[in-house]
Amino acid sequence: MSVFRSVPLGAACLLYAAVLGAAPQSDSPPAPPAFAAPAPLQVAVRLVWESTPEVEAARAELEAARARARAAAQPLYNPSLALDAENADVDRRTAGISLSLDLSGKRRARADQGDAELRASEIAYDLRRRDIAARWLKGWSTAALAARQRELGQQRLALMQRFDDLAAQRLKVGDISSPERDLAGLALGEAQMQQASLAGNEAAAHAALLAISGDRLGSPPALPASLPPAAEAWPPLATGQLPEMMRARAEQASADAGVQVARRARIPDPTVSLTGGRVRNGPISDRVVGLSVSIPLPVLNSGSAEMAAVQAEAAAAAANVRARQFALDASLTEARARYRALHAAAEAFRSGRAAAFRERTALLEKLWRAGEIGTSDYLVQLKQSLDTALSGLELESQAWQAWFDYLTAAGRLNDWLDGRTQELSR
Q: What pTM did the predictor assign?
């Protein structure tokens, strides 16, 4: 049940003058902005990297890529040993060894492709760690916001309980009417329901964090009192230095190396065989030595289809590099603009009178006790103050999440976590 009435002019003037004269601007004045991540946050992210199974899986995939690169650098052919024995009119005992010769550079081409794939896997590992850190940081800011909202909701519940008790007392002495007393009871019930919802939101936010890092971290660090710095404090990397672009180029290099592998695979390699032994024909026994060279003929399958396939894959990888550049530039532009807007709005909220929640609620109660405003007016203005305070917390959380998105798009998230503040411009 909501009742909207105009506030008396005298009470409004008194409220405005008292708010303007209040010395503190907020419950806790913001600290000077830090350029690097707070130390507890750096420790928490490192623990996340150590504890999350996703990083462990990415590390195993990287080890597999390293093993594949070593395998690609190994020789293509192993020697073959042949033993031959024959008992007939002529007794023959021979042994032979054969080896195919890589004269076309297949091993070198395979090694180049393995190195390119390993480079792409290394960058993918770094990207996985960065993405996990970004997910955890955004979840952490959501959980920290939920905790602060629950605390503010607890204050609201205490205010409504106090208001309900005072309303009951004033009803007994005849200062307020029975409908006004009912309004106080309804407001208390609504506050209790909203508090349960805030507690549920906090539990869901903590569950999202546990899904990423498990329970090794315990309680995550609190949200810093200050807002994150301006975007200009952490200029973005050049597009070519962004990890997504570096991975796309490594994949292009792997595709180009695959073209070289397919091209050399079309060139047949000769096989050289050396045979030696003894042949006995009656009383005559002779030693024999043989040398043979065989070359496969690429007649039935020349490898042209495989060549066309890898050339198409290389063309697709090159186009993907250009497409990735466009997407990264657009993502950075969007993330930077959104962060600047939210950061400016959060700073304006902190410096404005909307953040003076405690002073405003104390003054409203004083005016209600003095009879300057009615019960419905008190509830309307108190609800507006609480909603504004909760919206301010939501705005700060959005600013933090936009900050993480900007650092990710700018390629500076790990730098911010490590405290590397060197200026790198686009």
A: 0.75
